Amino acid sequence: FAGDWRFIWASPSIETLPPMAGLEVAFAGRSNVGKSSLINALTGRSNLARTSHTPGRTQELIFFEGPEKAGFRLVDMPGYGYASAPKAKVASWTTLIHKFLLGRATLARVYVLIDARHGIKDVDLDVLKTLDKSAVSYQVVLTKADQVKAGALKTVIAETSEALARHPAAFPEVLVTSSRTGDGMPELRAAMVRLIAE
Ligand code: GTP
Ligand code: MG
């Protein structure tokens, strides 16, 4: 998994995606949940995907290609549910996200990121509903686990699992991660490597 990950393509719309080749793993989630940071932590490249303290950093679908033996691409996505961004922008990002999740044939896995401090929201449930309609396998990943105490983490895991029980297409297991401490990265990398082996 480690090695020479690099940026290959950025697409502001569904009409300008890169030609399909190999498998793709995409990261979806509310603005500021830590999608770009997770890609950096996974690849061990601290500046591969652009991150920011303020929501709305990633505004396009961003494709990264790995070393040959990784055999797949990672796709960073704009965030959804960002209330302070211009309405038209939010609407166009949301449409782009849902279209991509529903219609991309090479998409092999989607990780839906949920901030462990905030838990699952209605906008997340909308994305799960879209994923239920697609043929893509998807799993929920809690982010920023370093920011919550063990008890609160247990509660958010239980609440998230309960919401997932209504989505049989989802992996029932919730992954717990921190891009800051690296917690959960080996498990997430291993899951992706298994995906390629399937
Ligand atoms: P958009 O592109 O705007 O949708 O955001 P994003 O989901 O890509 O989030 P990004 O990776 O840019 O991270 C947002 C903020 O959260 C940054 O300030 C990160 O440093 C911080 N952050 C991300 N992951 C973690 C984490 O695991 N722990 C902590 N404490 N902070 C994190
Ligand atoms: Mg981002």
Description:
The chain has a single domain, classed as Rossmann fold (3-Layer(aba) Sandwich), CATH 3.40.50.300. The protein has 198 residues and is of the alpha/beta class. A seven-stranded mixed sheet has the order 1-3-4-2-5-6-7, sandwiched between helices. Strand 6, helix 4 and strand 7 form a beta-alpha-beta unit. The chain contains five helices and seven strands. Bound molecules: guanosine-5'-triphosphate and magnesium ion (MG). The site of guanosine-5'-triphosphate has 24 residues, from helix 1.
Salient structural properties:
globular, single chain, Rossmann fold, seven-stranded mixed sheet, alpha/beta, 7 strands, 5 helices, 198 residues, GTP-binding, binds guanosine-5'-triphosphate, binds magnesium ion
Reconstruct the topology from this structure:
Elements: E1 6-11, E2 23-29, H1 35-43, E3 61-65, E4 72-76, H2 87-103, E5 107-115, H3 122-133, E6 137-143, H4 150-164, E7 175-176, H5 185-197
Parallel strand pairs: 2-4, 2-5, 5-6, 6-7
Antiparallel strand pairs: 1-3, 3-4
Bound molecules: guanosine-5'-triphosphate (GTP) and magnesium ion.
Domain EngB-type G: 21-198
Family: Belongs to the TRAFAC class TrmE-Era-EngA-EngB-Septin-like GTPase superfamily. EngB GTPase family.
Function: Necessary for normal cell division and for the maintenance of normal septation.
User: Could you name the CATH class?
Assistant: Alpha Beta
Q: Going across the major beta sheet, what is the strand order?
A: 1-3-4-2-5-6-7
Give the uncertain stretches in residue-range form.
none
CATH-defined architecture:
3-Layer(aba) Sandwich
Largest sheet properties: 7 strands, mixed
The SSE string, one letter per element, is EEHEEHEHEHEH
Count helical runs. 5
Q: What's the CATH H-level homologous superfamily? A: P-loop containing nucleotide triphosphate hydrolases
Judging from the principal axes of the Cα atoms, what is the shape?
A: globular
Number of strand elements: 7
Heteromolecules bound: guanosine-5'-triphosphate, magnesium ion
Reported by name, the CATH topology is Rossmann fold
From the N-terminal CA to the C-terminal CA, the straight-line distance is 16 Å
Average the pLDDT over all residues and give the rounded result.
Answer: 94
Supply Rg: 15 Å
